[in-house]
Specification:
Blueprint lengths: L6 E7 L3 H4 L9 H4 L3 H10 L2 H5 L14 E7 L3 E7 L13 H10 L1
Antiparallel strand pairs: 1-3, 2-3
């Protein structure tokens, strides 16, 4: 029987009100206060803030299957989060990241 890996991409536009608000850091230290807004957003993503603040966008998975964030890619105006049960490359054809699928569209 073939097993399947649940994968999900989440795109955050880094110039919105959601990304500009203050975050309740799980680990508030003095060094975190010196980070830029964008760096605080990235750290909050790694700490699970997106799953807490936007639970409705995540694929429901069984208790035994947990989604982990494996990669965070930064571009000019976007943060792309790659999540899954275990690390695996996102198939380019199914990606929602415009920097990935536009390169594929140009090749057609």
């Amino acid at each position: 029987m073939k097993t399947y890996n649940t994968q999900q991409e989440v795109i955050l536009v880094a110039t919105t009100g959601f990304t500009a608000r203050e975050y309740n850091d799980k680990s508030t230290t003095e060094s975190n206060k010196n980070l830029s807004e964008r760096e605080r957003l990235q750290e909050a993503c790694w700490n699970g803030l997106v799953q807490e603040k936007l639970p409705e966008i995540f694929i429901p998975v069984k208790e035994a299957e947990k989604m982990y964030m494996w990669q965070l890619r930064e571009s000019n105006h976007l943060l792309t989060l790659e999540m899954g049960e275990y690390p695996k490359d996102i198939e380019v054809y199914y990606s929602i990241d415009p920097y990935i699928f536009m390169a594929l569209k140009g090749a057609n």
